[in-house]
Amino acid sequence: MTAQVTELAEPAAASMEVRLATTSSEIEAAQRLRFRVFYQEMGAQPTAEMAASGRDFDQFDAICDHLLVIDRRLGEGSPGVVGTYRLLRRESDKFQHFYSAGEYEVAKIAAFPGRVLELGRSCVDSAYRTKMTMQLLWRGIAGYVFTHNIDLMFGCASLPGTNPEALAVPLSYLYHHHLAPEDVRPRALPELYTNMNLLPANAINARQAVVALPPLVKGYLRLGGFVGDGAVIDRQFNTTDVCVIVKTDLITDKYFRHYDRTAARNL
Q1: Which of 27, 216, 244, 261 is deepest in the core (most CB within 10 A)?
Q2: Which CATH number fits domain 13-264: 3.40.1050.10, 3.40.630.30, 1.10.3720.10, 2.60.120.200?
């Protein structure tokens, strides 16, 4: 998948591309990037095998598509991978179950009558955390959504840290203002459920709450996203997870015009 990026204003735009991984070496490059960001930077706890290989991996990698942002100045293909997202279509021949089912009850999403896409393992190299890189990732997702006629996309998104009290403002804001409709609302598994309703709605400064949200979560909200009921503490990854759901028919035309159907031409 190749997106048109020449209109982006940043000087490096002409050297950047977004597309799906096509080789095992490109997938391994994405796994190495995930290891650097999740384990070396964010303090996640790798298994011995992950630590020895310097890669973040699991059984889902073999059945997912891997969206890549590549800076060709660093090299074509795997040497240039600076951003990644993992994509799992329910309608894929390889599909078995959703990754998010390890944290959330997702039966309502699994039964959704349209086409479903699970998003996960998003990360960007620290030197490339710019508006341009995020635009490329969103453009790539948009192209994938258009190509596969996706009706609903969802996935776990992370807030840093494992202390819900320290995250009371953003978690409560999400609960009071962005709780998913009942018909598609996932709920954290009972043994993992952490209450998000930690503050009353009238005690929350919405602007401050939005500022406290990670850029990825804010990106989902701009797309009209909702969250499931309950957060999950992920001690391996040193994060507090929320499940985000986006019905693609609710995405505003104004927003998606930035990520138009030209992104899907080579997909």
Answers
A1: 244
A2: 3.40.630.30
